[in-house]
Amino acid sequence: MLFKVSFWREIHRSVHTGLRTFQCSYCPLTFKWSSHYQYHLRQHTGECPYPCDSCSKAFKNSSSLRRHKNVHLGFKPYVCDVCNKAFSQSTNLRQHMRIHTGERPYICGDCGRSFTHSSNLALHRISHIEGKGKKRPYRCSECGKSFKGSSGLRYHMRDHTGERPYRCTECGKSFKRSSLLSIHQRVHTGVRAFQCPYCPLTFKWSSHYQYHLRQHTGERPYVCQECGKSFKNTSCLRRHSQLHSGLRPHACSVCGKAFSQTSNLKQHERTHSGERPFQCSQCHKSFTHSSNLQLHLRTHSSHKDFKCQHCGKEFVMLSYLQSQSDWL
Questions:
Q1: What are the CB-based long-range contacts (under 8 Å, 24+) for 94-101?
Q2: Number of C-alpha atoms within 13 angstroms, CB side, residue 98?
Q3: pLDDT, position 132
Q4: 189, part of any domain
Q5: Are 97 and 83 in contact (CB under 8 A)?
Q6: Sign of the CA dihedral with 192 first, then 85, 183, and 173 last
Q7: Dist. CA 243–CA 182, nearest whole Å
Q8: Is 257 exposed, middle or buried (0-12, 13-18, 19+ CB in 10 A)?
Q9: Considering the domain boundaries, does residue 305 fall inside one?
Q10: How far is the C-alpha of 65 from the C-alpha of 55, rounded, in Å?
């Protein structure tokens, strides 16, 4: 290969020799190319020599600045082929596609938990750092609450200041995060960006999508520290934890009986009101609990799972079999 200047030839030779002539003065890393070396140095120094002439942002290299300028131009050449949402940068499209595919390529080497973004993994890794002070180094000067990342503290401070910089153009509602505004806007657009890979269902909200996926996979990532029982979402774990704490905040207004969960209170109140909202579509018999309706539906089925070991008679429900056994 021919070069106009001998200097370029020497740089090219490092491809063949493996020579890494650029040594970082801050850490042990070495580099073959000056451009990679200069960019790496800026990770240490924080220098951003490429300013945007349309806003106050500055960047560590010219390619990052070029991509950023698409934001001001309104140029969005990268289009999702699932929901047609467009992006100014290919990296944003790649991250968005993980919503549809469910891909979580960034895996924690300590606990195996996976993430859609490298930044989320970096924040998560802080939780494994030993020492309480290092786990949440960003502390609120107003209330003392601490956070893993500076962005968490920044968003939290808006709770104190009341700042809501992200405003919906449709209804005027404002939010403290742009991501919350994007989620809210689905109320107006009706877009359901989360497609289940196992069935035809689609979802507006990521939390509903993730919970639904666990119906297919059986994953129960939220584990009770007291008894080891696991749950599909944090709200189920929170409600379960009240059983261990003895907390019963939901009291019946008729008889005063208290419950740890609102669902249990609602079921109990039907004993006072006589409400039986779960009705059989075949015989119109109604029930106070959905579980009782499910049991009843078996009486209409020819499928009998419970067999008596003494006489061979089969029953649709275990309770019927147990009644038979009591007579023997």
A1: 99/193, 99/194, 99/206, 100/193, 100/194, 100/195, 101/197
A2: 14
A3: 42
A4: no
A5: no
A6: negative
A7: 37
A8: middle
A9: yes
A10: 11
* DSSP string computed for 188-232: HH----EE-SSSS-EESSHHHHHHHHHHHH----EE-TTT--EES
- pLDDT band at 130, cuts 50/70/90? very low
In a 10 Å sphere around its CB, with 0-12 CB exposed, 13-18 middle and 19+ buried, how is residue 227 labelled? exposed
Residue 58 β-bridge partners: 51
d(CA 185, CA 200): 23
pLDDT cut 70: percent of the chain above it:
84
Residue 259 lies inside a defined structural domain of this protein: no
The reply to whether 309 falls in a domain is yes
**Tokens in use for 25?**
């003065």
Which amino acid would we find at residue 130?
E
CA distance 160 to 154: 11
Structural domain of residue 303, as residue ranges? 278-327
Cα within 13 Å of Cα(229), Cβ side? 12
Q: What is the mean pLDDT of residues 142-156?
A: 81
Strand partners, 138: 147
Instruction: Give tens-digit pLDDT for 271-289.
Output: 888 888 888 888 888 888 8
The residue with tokens 């996979």 is: 217
Higher pLDDT, 301 or 202: 202
Domain count, the chain: 2
Residue 218 has which token pair? 């059986």
Both tokens of 182, joined, read 């994007």
> At residue 142, does pLDDT exceed 50?
yes
Amino acid in position 284: H
Residue 192 near residue 205, CB atoms below 8 Å: no
Q: What is the pLDDT of residue 303?
A: 66
Which CATH number do you get for residue 19?
3.30.160.60
Please state the separation of Cα 46 from the chain's center in Å.
Answer: 30
Residues 180 and 174: their CA atoms lie apart, in Å, by: 9
* The two structure tokens encoding residue 178: 């742009």
